[in-house]
Amino acid sequence: MNKNGWGLVGTGRIADDRILPGINACAGNKLVAVVSRDQGRADTFARKFGAQHAYTSFDEMLRNPEVTVVAIHTPNAQHADQAVAAARAGKHVFCDKPMATSVADAERIVRECERAGVKLGINFHNRFMPCFVETRRIIASGEIGDVQHIQLEASPGARPGARLATWRVDPVLAGLGTTYSIGVHVYDILRYLLASEITMVSAFFDTPNGVMEETNMSLFRFANGVLAQLSVHEKSPFPHNDFVIYGAKGRILGRGLTRSRAGGELQVMTADGKTRTTEFPPINAHGACVAAFSDALLKGRDPVPSGIDGLRSVQVTDAMARSAWGGVHVRLAY
To answer: pLDDT of 324-334, one tens digit each?
Structure first.
């Protein structure tokens, strides 16, 4: 049986407790190499997860023929150049979110992966949370009728000083604040649930132009007519992390379910007065996303979430920044 030979660049917390365990959990994977700026850290990760090589040079890892797929988990602004370099080296690409910090760079990644004939997947792991898989099924079944509007909050809660001394407070490396750190997951999940594209956004940030935002309050209009109201923030210590989907014949209420590391419950209420509740404990959704990408590579399928999903996310967040900083509604055309 052929195996995916993984190389990972970016030895941060997510790689440590989610991505690398997810890679090793799949029988069709082999962890070949890790890359860190610090040789000692690279060596530590290699020993911990059984990688055959520990590099400080990304280019050196790309020259290793045993590496067939690259996982990119570096600061946001580095994703584009690293993804393009991996594609040109003939490696498949599994990229953390956001795929890039500009639309032009996101388009460049998609174009170079297509040109090289390699697969491109994005770590939108919320799509693999069972609560959202079930919510999508319910919507598609017609049980709550046509969806009319949605309200959603996503927040890790206030974490004073959590970003200090990290690249996430540097606009050059991070691009945006909570919009990229937290928001992109729920913006993507609404596209997934509704199977429809966002056509207009109106966003408000709590900071002026060019300053890293901690709160993003936004409105979306989808191509199918659905309206969504979203609150994404890192200020309040007591977030609900709920979502409500209002349909013509019922309602779906997710309590505490918008963040993958926490569990909650899903309530479905229908026009006949019936209500059912299902508990959903947390899972390693990152690992499930890695597993799906790994399986797609082994079977020669296009991965989902795809590079186009990553591009759409960058297009939406770019529109949100223009809306917030310009005080305007922004239309999107694909």
So the answer is: 999 999 999 98
Considering the domain architecture, whether residues 258 and 228 belong to the same structural domain is answered as yes
**Which pLDDT tens digit goes with each residue over 179-208?**
999 999 999 999 999 999 999 999 999 998
User: Does one domain contain both 149 and 294?
Assistant: no
- What local confidence, expressed as pLDDT, does residue 168 receive? 81
Residues 133 and 116 placed together within one structural domain of the fold: no
pTM: 0.95
Kindly give the pairing relationship between strand 330-331 and strand 275-280: unpaired
Please give the torsion angle defined by the CA atoms of residues 189, 191, 193 and 195, in that order, rounded to the nearest 10 degrees.
-160
309, with CB counted inside 10 A (0-12, 13-18, 19+), is: buried
Residue 87's domain is classified under what CATH number?
Answer: 3.40.50.720
Task: Pick the closest to residue 228 from 265, 207, 202, 264 (CA basis).
Answer: 202
Query: Going by C-beta distance under 8 Å and a sequence separation of 6 or more, which residues neighbour residue 49?
Result: 20, 21, 23, 24, 31, 34
Does 191 lie in the same domain as 106?
A: no
| Helix 103-116 / helix 307-326 crossing angle, nearest 10 deg | 170
Counted domains in the chain:
2
Q: CA geometry: angle at 162 spanning 157 and 168, to 5°?
A: 105
Question: Domain containing 78: what range?
Answer: 4-124+287-306
Q: Which residues of the chain have pLDDT under 50?
A: none
